[in-house]
Write a structure and sequence with these properties.
Radius of gyration: 22 Å
Number of strands: 6
Number of domains: 2
Structural class: alpha/beta
Distance between the termini: 50 Å
Strand order of the largest sheet: 1-2-3-4-5-6
Shape: elongated
Largest sheet: 6 strands, mixed
CATH architecture of the largest domain: 3-Layer(aba) Sandwich
CATH class of the largest domain: Alpha Beta
Length: about 270
């Protein structure tokens, strides 16, 4: 990838999250040292190295988690998705949209207007945010970035779409051209994030505002329908892609089933 196109700001900007981690580590070290001295004097017990390291790590994780929560509530509020209000009527509309879609653009438009369908497979959390078509540099544009805020901080997921009518595999059970192209797109925007992680994480206008994003964030490719039996060799390929690249490959039927499952849970 041509990183020469990055602006000087992208190259030089300091990572705000790393500064939070650094400060939290210093405070954690002081707290651990104070507690170590206290236990030695009051209880005659000396904390081991691992116990001290665990205390420092816990303090860093707490500080970073609070940093993520505070920023997300303010900076990502326009992308907030109220995941727990999904209904069977909405799922029926999703089913019809998949049935009617002729191109990737058709389902992209529908999901941009109905982001709630993109978060139903996630677990618990304090907030879910969906960003359509975020621009990473001048040329890379994932279809969606999804953020889930929980007690441990913020976790990001990428989503790449292909047409509901696209084929995942060839007649011989090999990955289709459209699928390999989507995988390559994910690899490319991960590379961009690796090169520009500080710029991606930092607050706007000096960054993209992707709070706490990891360059190697997991991703999902949605394409095709479950209307053909999946060959054994393609299933092996899909498992290998998940294990080796943290990329899951699913049909739109899978996403529809996740939404149906959530509706049943909410109705119980």
């Amino acid at each position: 990838m041509d990183t020469s196109k990055r602006s000087p700001k992208e190259k030089e900007y300091r990572d705000e999250q790393q500064e939070i981690e650094y400060r939290a580590k210093k405070v954690g070290e002081m707290l651990a040292d104070s507690y170590k001295k206290y236990t030695e004097v009051s209880e005659g017990y000396t904390l081991g190295k691992q116990e001290l390291e665990d205390m420092i790590k816990s303090h860093i994780e707490f500080a970073v988690s609070r940093y993520h929560h505070v920023r997300a509530e303010e900076e990502l509020k326009e992308y907030l998705v109220l995941w727990d209000i999904i209904t069977s009527i909405q799922v029926t509309a999703f089913y019809q949209a998949l049935k009617d879609a002729k191109r990737e653009e058709d389902i992209q438009k529908f999901l941009t207007q109905n982001k709630i369908f993109l978060v139903q497979h996630l677990g618990g959390g304090h907030g879910r945010y969906v960003i359509p078509k975020p621009e990473l540099g001048s040329q890379l544009v994932p279809d969606f970035l999804v953020a889930e805020v929980s007690s441990i901080g913020i976790e990001w997921y990428g989503i790449e779409l292909e047409s509901p009518n696209a084929l995942m595999f060839t007649r011989s059970g090999q990955a289709s051209y459209r699928l390999t192209q989507s995988i390559q797109q994910i690899v490319e925007w991960r590379e961009w994030l690796t090169e520009n992680i500080a710029y991606a994480r930092n607050q706007k206008p000096n960054g993209l505002g992707l709070i706490g994003i990891d360059a190697n964030l997991p991703a999902t490719i949605l394409m095709g329908k479950r209307d053909k039996e999946i060959p054994a060799n393609f299933n092996a390929y899909r498992k290998q892609t998940k294990r080796g690249l943290s990329i899951e490959i699913h049909s739109y039927d899978w996403l529809l089933e996740q939404c149906e499952h959530r509706v049943r849970m909410l109705e119980e």
